[in-house]
């Protein structure tokens, strides 16, 4: 069976090793305006990341259409969050540091193929954590429109969470992907437990 055929048949699920603390969401509810600003920043970075990966790895032709579709979808999310911010008269914030993403990227290995695999698997993990937290926020919100919005984002991020890992089946064996994914999930679990809670997605 070719790698292309394997990529169509085998599905790799990205399952977080550690759930978010149940009290985390209260920080979001108490500082929702700041959370919206961080959320917009995350969506902006997701657009840039998807296109940046497409330009960094142009030889990975099977992946490019997925990255383009992802960038379009993340841009739509950015627009929707910005509309919520406009209704609250909230400005965009030029830059918000993300110790979660930066902490994960520190574990990327050197070497072209190893770094490629790590970047893609970390992208899946980031999306999976985002999905989990959007779901938690949706459940905690009382406003029906916001609740529906974040529930829809939860569904979208769930799909994104499996995208990168499964696309790696075009380029690596299933065993290699699963082994490295579990290593990174364990590292992510350690990271998420020691980070300070902020009115942010991560």
Labels describing this entry:
202 residues; 8 helices; 71% helix; mainly alpha; single chain; Ferritin; disordered N terminus
Plain-language structure description:
The protein is mostly helical and 202 residues long. It has one domain: Ferritin, core subunit, four-helix bundle (Ferritin, Up-down Bundle). It is built from eight helices and no strands. The protein has helices spanning 3-9, 24-30, 32-56, 64-87, 99-105, 112-140, 144-167, 174-194.
Topology:
Elements: H1 3-9, H2 24-30, H3 32-56, H4 64-87, H5 99-105, H6 112-140, H7 144-167, H8 174-194
What's a quick, concise take on this entry?
This protein is mainly α. The chain is built from 8 helices and no strands. The chain is globular and about 45 Å long.
């Amino acid at each position: 069976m070719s790698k292309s055929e394997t990529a169509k048949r085998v599905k790799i699920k990205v399952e977080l090793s550690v759930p978010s603390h149940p009290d985390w969401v209260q920080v979001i509810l108490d500082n929702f305006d700041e959370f919206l600003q961080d959320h917009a920043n995350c969506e902006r970075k997701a657009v840039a990341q998807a296109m940046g990966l497409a330009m960094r790895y142009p030889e990975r032709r099977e992946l490019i259409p997925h990255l383009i579709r992802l960038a379009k979808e993340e841009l739509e999310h950015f627009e929707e969050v910005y509309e919520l911010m406009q209704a609250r008269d909230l400005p965009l914030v030029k830059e918000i540091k993300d110790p979660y993403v930066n902490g994960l990227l520190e574990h990327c290995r050197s070497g072209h193929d190893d770094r490629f695999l790590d970047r893609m698997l970390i992208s899946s993990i980031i999306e999976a954590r985002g999905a989990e937290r959007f779901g938690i926020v949706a459940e905690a919100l009382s406003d029906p429109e916001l609740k529906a919005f974040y529930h829809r984002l939860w569904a979208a991020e769930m799909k994104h969470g499996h995208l990168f890992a499964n696309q790696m089946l075009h380029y690596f064996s299933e065993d290699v992907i699963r082994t490295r994914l579990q290593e990174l999930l364990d590292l992510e679990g350690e990271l998420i437990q020691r980070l300070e809670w902020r009115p942010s997605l991560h």
